Structure formats: structure tokens, C-alpha cells
């Protein structure tokens, strides 16, 4: 095959240039995008560095809600308080769909995300919803699941087999390492543990470099007098039980290799690198164990290695919001609109009496979002505000004239006064109040305008319509009613004189 005509898609230089355009942010740090949007990231609780995003603009505020865990065994808990009362929630946690697919035959009306008993207030206190979100039952289940995996690993090691764990989720790896060290210590087994990945050393050092991303109990360990390690893998490294290598053919690994052993690698699809080589070596021995995360098609993944005798353990890990916690979360956040995946429509149908409305999105389709705010706030700089000369309309309302430009800055509209104010700034542009016919007639005559009340115009009771007939310098008619005053005139100069006279007898800005 002639490869000469093929053009490279990108180069290392392209990647470096792309990365230079990225901007790192801290949890809780607000950053401005294009002057229009304010972005703020907070922990999602699922993994170290995973984020929930709050996006605020002048006309709406949006919460982007990916896979989220409210109480985590390793990462900082989700800060849902910072997301309260945002207008729109973009629900992007698909883990609920996986749970539904697994338990579809067991799900009834009570499992619907928008069940009537949950989507209405029904007198339930917000504290009860918060308690539901903050229960650590999910973590207890996760730890129980990890303990079971460690017991299976221990059984495989005792039988003389090795264990391959091709899982890429950092939090799961850290928890398994922590619990397997305790299991091996209690069983008095000395088994080498290898983590083989090009990013292995960076991943492990990363867990000690960002303590502010860790859950509160682990942060407390950092500042305790006992100098306790943040994670169990720290002791394994110190004791030489855990070794980190970038490749399977690393010189140090060949010298340290010993079976049975436990190997962690991120090759979850079993199609490249370390996992392929070790499966070719271990697939025919029933004493060995392969730990896979649920969602990987084990039968398809293992086809290239048939026949297979290795034990396969498929495990599901906590990967997002549990179905039962969706409505308590919405009740706490109080959005106006929730965007759900189309696949959740059968479990979360739209209800007329729901406190929030629903829309459903799907891949490749554009949906139109209704406006959630009829009005919006506009900021006014201090120097401009002090320069205003307001006039009181009544006890509650005052008006002032301002010549300014509307700017968009840091997600808010701001009125900015121009540096050079024109001479026309003293001219009144807005008038209000009832017009006294007698005063207007005197004001017109003072300006040299020949005018009079029509013969049939009587000074009737207050509130009736009156007119002034103008004959010179041009013909015109001024009609005054309680709700409006209208000038009828074809001559521009005469109209200007009438307007000036009217302005002198009216309140205006």
C-alpha cells in the first residue's frame, strides 16, 4: 500500500499547541468565558478531579450534572449547595440507565424518577431530602463490594493463581489496593503487586499532590499528628510490595517479576498492551482470576483468547446518582427546567403539576430551550449611579435620565456612561403628569405663539379633554386629556416651539 498520499491528522506539536490553550481551574473558582458566561467547577464526588459545572449568564443559569456521588470514600463530596436555584439542570448522569437495564423486570411504578409522591412537596421538609442525599449507604455497599473482590483475589492467590485487574478508574484502584493490603496482611501472604501503565507513577503521585480534592476523612489524616498515610498504597510502596512500571518489558519489572502476583493495568477492553500479553500467558489456567468492570462484554473481549479457563469476575462499581436520589436532589436544587436523556422519558414522564418542567434530549438532535427569565438585572457603576439626578414619581418610584451603553461583562449586563456627554444631555426626553391647560396657554403666548381656546371649549370639570388652537407662526392644535397630550402640526419649527412650551409646564427628565 502506498502511504505517500496520506496526510497526518495531527502531530505532537499540534497537541502541545492545543494544550497551551487550556486553562486550569480550582474547585469553587469562577472564570469568565468571552465576557458572557461565568463558569465554576465543583467536585462531583465520583473521581478525583471530576466536576459538576455551574454556568451563569445574564439570562439564565445552568447546572451541568454528570455522573455524581454525594458521599465518596476517596474524592471530595459533591457540593450540591453551590448549584441551588440554577434555572436549568442538564442531567448527564447515565448510570441510572444501567441500573434500570439490570433490574428492568423488578422496576414498577414506585421506581419512576418522577413518581407523584416525590415530585410534589407534600409537606416534606428540605432537611429530609438532604438526609436522603447524604446517607452513606452507597459507600457501605461499595466497600462491601470491594471486600468481596479482595476475598476472591485472596482465594485465587492461595490456589497458586495470579490476578489481572484491567480497570482504569483511579478511585476503584485505590480502594482495591487499600483493602487488598489489609487482606494480605491478615492472611500473612506475601504477593508482589504491580501497576503497569505509562502514567502509573504520575497517577500515584497525583493522589498526594491534591489533598483538597480528597474526602474530608482523608484530609483529616493529612493534618493529624499521627502522620497517617492518605491511602493504603503508600505503605505498600514503602514496604516494596507495590511496584510501578511504565511497560511490561521494563528492565526493573523483568528483575522483580514473580508469580503468583497481582497486576493492575488500565487496558479495560483487553485489546492492547499489558492485558493482551498477560491474558495469553494466563488464560488457560483456571487458578488465575480476571477482574472486569461491568459494562465490558466479557464474552466478546475474551474471544481472541479462546478456549478460556481463567476465572472471570464481573463487578459493578458506584458510578453515579442512584435512581432513588434523583427527586430529592431536584427538590433541594429547585430548578425551573430539567433536561433528561431521551432514554429516561419512560421513567420520568412530564407531569403538569410537577414543580419543574422537563425536556428530553438525544444524541445528534438540537432542542429549543424556553426562556426561563422574563426580565434580567443590569449593573450600574458607582460613579455613574452617584451622577444621576432622580426625580420622585411617588413614594416607591423615582426616575432619572441616563445616557449610557449596554455592555456585557463577566456574565452580567452593565450600563457604562460614555466619556464625552453631548450638549443635548440637558434636553428633557421624558415627561409625565397632567397638563394644566391654562398654564400651557400662557407658556405658548410667552413664546410669541398666537393661540386661544376654541369658542366651544368650556372650562369643564377636572379630567375632561381640552384643546388649544394655534394660528401663528403656523397652524396647529394641541389636545390635552388625562392620559395623554397630542400635538397636531405640519410645521417642524412650530412643533419645536410647542414642545418647548409643553416641557416648561411638565415634570420631566
UniProtKB/TrEMBL annotation:
Q: Which Pfam families match?
A: Beta-Casp
Its Gene Ontology cellular component terms are: cytoplasm; integrator complex
Q: Point out the signal peptide segment.
A: none
Q: Which residues form the Beta-Casp domain?
A: 173-300
* Predominant subcellular localization, coarse grouping: cytoplasm
User: Has UniProt tagged this entry with the keyword Nucleus?
Assistant: yes
Q: What is a biological process (GO) this protein takes part in?
A: snRNA 3'-end processing
SUPFAM superfamilies, per the entry: Metallo-hydrolase/oxidoreductase
Q: Where in the cell is it found?
A: Cytoplasm; Nucleus
Keywords, A to Z, come to:
Cytoplasm, Nucleus
Q: What is this protein called?
A: Beta-Casp domain-containing protein
Q: Species name for this entry?
A: Aegilops tauschii subsp. strangulata
Amino acid at each position: 500500500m502506498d502511504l505517500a498520499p496520506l496526510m497526518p491528522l495531527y502531530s505532537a506539536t499540534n497537541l502541545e499547541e492545543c494544550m497551551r490553550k487550556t486553562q486550569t481551574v480550582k474547585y469553587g473558582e469562577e472564570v469568565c468565558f468571552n465576557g458572557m458566561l461565568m463558569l465554576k467547577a465543583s467536585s462531583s464526588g465520583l473521581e478525583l478531579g471530576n466536576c459538576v459545572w455551574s454556568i451563569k449568564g445574564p439570562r439564565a443559569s445552568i447546572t451541568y450534572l454528570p455522573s455524581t456521588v454525594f458521599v465518596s470514600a476517596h474524592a471530595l463530596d459533591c457540593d450540591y449547595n453551590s448549584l441551588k436555584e440554577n434555572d436549568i439542570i442538564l442531567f448527564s448522569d447515565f448510570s441510572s440507565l444501567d441500573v434500570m437495564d439490570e433490574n428492568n423486570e423488578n422496576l414498577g411504578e414506585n421506581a419512576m424518577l418522577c413518581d407523584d409522591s416525590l415530585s410534589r412537596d407534600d409537606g416534606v421538609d428540605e432537611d429530609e431530602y438532604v438526609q436522603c442525599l447524604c446517607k452513606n449507604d452507597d459507600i457501605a455497599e461499595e466497600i462491601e463490594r470491594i471486600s468481596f473482590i479482595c476475598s476472591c483475589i485472596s482465594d485465587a492467590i492461595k490456589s497458586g493463581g495470579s490476578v489481572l485487574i484491567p480497570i482504569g478508574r483511579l478511585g476503584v484502584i485505590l480502594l482495591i489496593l487499600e483493602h487488598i493490603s489489609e487482606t494480605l496482611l491478615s492472611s500473612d501472604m506475601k504477593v508482589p503487586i504491580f501497576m503497569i501503565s505509562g502514567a502509573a507513577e504520575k497517577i500515584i503521585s497525583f493522589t498526594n499532590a491534591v489533598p483538597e480534592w480528597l474526602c474530608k476523612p482523608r484530609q483529616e489524616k493529612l493534618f493529624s499528628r499521627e502522620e497517617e498515610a492518605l491511602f493504603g498504597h503508600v505503605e505498600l510502596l514503602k514496604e516494596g510490595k507495590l511496584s510501578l512500571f511504565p511497560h511490561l518489558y521494563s528492565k526493573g519489572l523483568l528483575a522483580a517479576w514473580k508469580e503468583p502476583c497481582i497486576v493492575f493495568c488500565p487496558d479495560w477492553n483487553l485489546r492492547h498492551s499489558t492485558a493482551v500479553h498477560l491474558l495469553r500467558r494466563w488464560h488457560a489456567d483456571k487458578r488465575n482470576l480476571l477482574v472486569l468492570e461491568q459494562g465490558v462484554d466479557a464474552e466478546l473481549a475474551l474471544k481472541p483468547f479462546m478456549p478460556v479457563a481463567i476465572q472471570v469476575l464481573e463487578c459493578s462499581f458506584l458510578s453515579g446518582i442512584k435512581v432513588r436520589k434523583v427527586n430529592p436532589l431536584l427538590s433541594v436544587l429547585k430548578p425551573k427546567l430539567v433536561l433528561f436523556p431521551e432514554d429516561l422519558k419512560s421513567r420520568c414522564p412530564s407531569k403538569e403539576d410537577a414543580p419543574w418542567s422537563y425536556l428530553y434530549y438525544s444524541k445528534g438532535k438540537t432542542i429549543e430551550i424556553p426562556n426561563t427569565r422574563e426580565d434580567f438585572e443590569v449593573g450600574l457603576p458607582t460613579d455613574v449611579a452617584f451622577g444621576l439626578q432622580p426625580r420622585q414619581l411617588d413614594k416607591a418610584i423615582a426616575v432619572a435620565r441616563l445616557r449610557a451603553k449596554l455592555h456585557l461583562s463577566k456574565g452580567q449586563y452593565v450600563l457604562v456612561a460614555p466619556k464625552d456627554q453631548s450638549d443635548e444631555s440637558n434636553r428633557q426626553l421624558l415627561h409625565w403628569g397632567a397638563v394644566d391647560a391654562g398654564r400651557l396657554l400662557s407658556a405658548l403666548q410667552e413664546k410669541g405663539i398666537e393661540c386661544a381656546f376654541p369658542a366651544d371649549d368650556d372650562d369643564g370639570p377636572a379630567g375632561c379633554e381640552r384643546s388649544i388652537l394655534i394660528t401663528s407662526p403656523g397652524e396647529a392644535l394641541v389636545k390635552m386629556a388625562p392620559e395623554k397630550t397630542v400635538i397636531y402640526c405640519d410645521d417642524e419649527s412650530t412643533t419645536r416651539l410647542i414642545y418647548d412650551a409643553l416641557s416648561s409646564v411638565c415634570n420631566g427628565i
